[in-house]
Automatic annotation (TrEMBL):
<comment type="pathway">
    <text>Amino-acid biosynthesis; L-valine biosynthesis; L-valine from pyruvate: step 4/4.</text>
</comment>
<dbReference type="InterPro" id="IPR043132">
    <property type="entry name" value="BCAT-like_C"/>
</dbReference>
<dbReference type="Pfam" id="PF01063">
    <property type="entry name" value="Aminotran_4"/>
</dbReference>
<dbReference type="InterPro" id="IPR043131">
    <property type="entry name" value="BCAT-like_N"/>
</dbReference>
<comment type="similarity">
    <text>Belongs to the class-IV pyridoxal-phosphate-dependent aminotransferase family.</text>
</comment>
<dbReference type="GO" id="GO:0005829">
    <property type="term" value="C:cytosol"/>
</dbReference>
<dbReference type="InterPro" id="IPR018300">
    <property type="entry name" value="Aminotrans_IV_CS"/>
</dbReference>
<dbReference type="GO" id="GO:0009082">
    <property type="term" value="P:branched-chain amino acid biosynthetic process"/>
</dbReference>
<keyword id="KW-0032">Aminotransferase</keyword>
<dbReference type="GO" id="GO:0004084">
    <property type="term" value="F:branched-chain-amino-acid transaminase activity"/>
</dbReference>
<dbReference type="InterPro" id="IPR001544">
    <property type="entry name" value="Aminotrans_IV"/>
</dbReference>
<comment type="pathway">
    <text>Amino-acid biosynthesis; L-leucine biosynthesis; L-leucine from 3-methyl-2-oxobutanoate: step 4/4.</text>
</comment>
<keyword id="KW-0100">Branched-chain amino acid biosynthesis</keyword>
<dbReference type="InterPro" id="IPR036038">
    <property type="entry name" value="Aminotransferase-like"/>
</dbReference>
<comment type="function">
    <text>Acts on leucine, isoleucine and valine.</text>
</comment>
<protein>
    <recommendedName>
        <fullName>Probable branched-chain-amino-acid aminotransferase</fullName>
        <ecNumber>2.6.1.42</ecNumber>
    </recommendedName>
</protein>
<keyword id="KW-0028">Amino-acid biosynthesis</keyword>
Length: 284
């Protein structure tokens, strides 16, 4: 089938592979009313799975889509689905909601016509020693007034994709995206941190970027381990002069930056410690 590494739960049944879920009159395929979340199963653990299940419900609500699954039920279903894979596989967990019934205007004819699916697939995480290069993107994050930034909604991602493409075309792995005021927001699918003189700094959530679950977890872990962590407004120039830069996100957890523009950086001790603390927390 080409999708033998995938299991999808929809309408009460598990399907092996990638079943068609939307039609040409589905509201989401037409007008973009879909939300999703991303979480991980690896080494027998699913860190913060309850928070990811809660977030997809909150994202649905932010778009006026009625979330039909209880978070505990969704987490349980995830556990059931992950058991279909080999225990050494690293699984990406993608719950999704979308509005089904189309209407004549922009809103779904029946906002209660929610559909849900849970898609699980094999997606190896980056190696422990992986690191990335980053560059400043010419593109910006939208504000709350221009896009539903409080939701993890599919409609936000074409902007992230063009930022990523533009960076890739210039030979970088990822892009630093700023908000409309010019302050650093995040990478294209991960949050950003830097360390300077032993202290950790990261942009404060200001409604323009995702306050990642991994971000919040890493802040708590580093703080408990005795590091000072400052959440504040940050300019790109501060990152250019950082001792260390690293990103956080569910996909690869903690990833050090090895180059910013034309400046090489050493993957440093704080990023390594953050990763180690994350693994200890996940496996506790
Ligand atoms: N920002 C964006 C735009 C993302 O897509 C992600 C991945 N969900 C993140 C940040 C990191 O968030 P989390 O730690 O919750 O995965």
């Amino acid at each position: 089938s080409g999708w033998s590494d995938t299991w999808t739960w929809i309408d009460g049944t598990w399907h092996e592979g990638n079943p068609p879920i939307m039609g040409p009159r589905t509201h989401a395929s037409w007008l973009g009313s879909s939300v999703f979340d991303g979480a991980r199963f690896f080494e027998g653990v699913m860190p913060d799975i309850d928070l990811h299940c809660k977030r997809v419900n909150d994202s649905a609500q932010a778009l006026g889509i009625n979330p039909t699954m209880r978070t505990g039920e969704m987490a349980e279903l995830t556990r059931e689905g992950c058991a279909k894979f080999k225990s050494d596989q690293q699984i990406y967990i993608k719950p999704m909601y979308w509005a089904e019934n189309d209407g004549v205007g922009v809103i779904a004819a029946d906002p209660q016509s929610t559909r849900f699916c849970l898609c699980l697939f094999d997606a190896p995480m980056a190696a422990k020693d992986a690191s990335v290069s980053i560059t400043l993107s010419p593109f910006r994050r939208p504000t709350m007034e221009t896009m539903p930034v409080n939701a993890k909604a599919g409609c936000l991602y074409p902007n992230n994709a063009r930022a990523m493409l533009e960076a890739r075309n210039r030979g970088f792995d990822n892009a630093v995206v700023r908000d409309m005021l010019g302050n650093v927001a995040e990478l294209t699918s991960a949050n950003i941190f830097m360390a300077k003189e032993g202290k950790v700094h990261t942009p404060a959530p200001n409604g323009t970027f995702l306050n990642g679950i991994t971000r919040q977890r890493v802040i708590r872990l580093l703080s408990s381990a005795g590091y000072e962590v400052f959440e504040r407004t940050m300019g790109y120039d501060e990152f250019l002069e950082a001792d260390e830069i690293f990103s956080t996100g569910n996909y690869n957890k903690v990833t050090p930056v090895k180059r910013i523009e034309d400046r090489d950086l050493q993957p440093g001790p704080i990023a390594a410690r953050a990763r180690e603390l994350y693994w200890e927390f996940s496996h506790a």
